[in-house]
Amino acid sequence: MNVIKTFSLAALLALAGTASATSFVVTTDAVVGAVAATADASSDASSSFNDDKIVLAARDDAAAFVASQGSIRGVSFEAALQHIRQQVPTLQGDDMQLATAILSL
Fold it and tell me: What CA–CA distance (Å, rounded) separates 66 from 100?
């Protein structure tokens, strides 16, 4: 009887270890995917707007937006977002990604 319990416990621990490893891999893949998407949006926006006066004027507002985690939205930043989205309608970045891209200019 003890042998069956021992094997059952060993099997249960092996399954739990496999589930934890799989969960870690899925979580890691999700985080890496999110970082890659942010980098792509930043790269797309910053390569197109290096000398754009509207976007460059919004750097201070973009910094305030990022620092406040999105609660401060300056007029220059709003104008830059509208300008960027008109110039590149296929851009898939959200406001925080675009603010980060503006700061990288």
Answer: 7
pLDDT in tens, 21-34: 555 555 555 555 55
Query: Tell me, what amino acid is at 90?
Result: T
Model pTM greater than 0.85? Answer: no
Contacts of 50 (CB under 8 A, 6+ apart): 105
Burial class of residue 9, CB neighbours in 10 A (0-12, 13-18, 19+): exposed
Of the candidates 89, 84, 80, which has an alpha carbon nearest to the alpha carbon of residue 60?
80
Phi, psi of 47 (to 5 degrees): -70, -25
The C-alpha atoms of residue 61 and residue 75 are separated, in whole angstroms, by 8
86 to each of 9, 59, 72, 83, 94, how far by Cα in Å?
Answer: 61, 18, 22, 5, 14
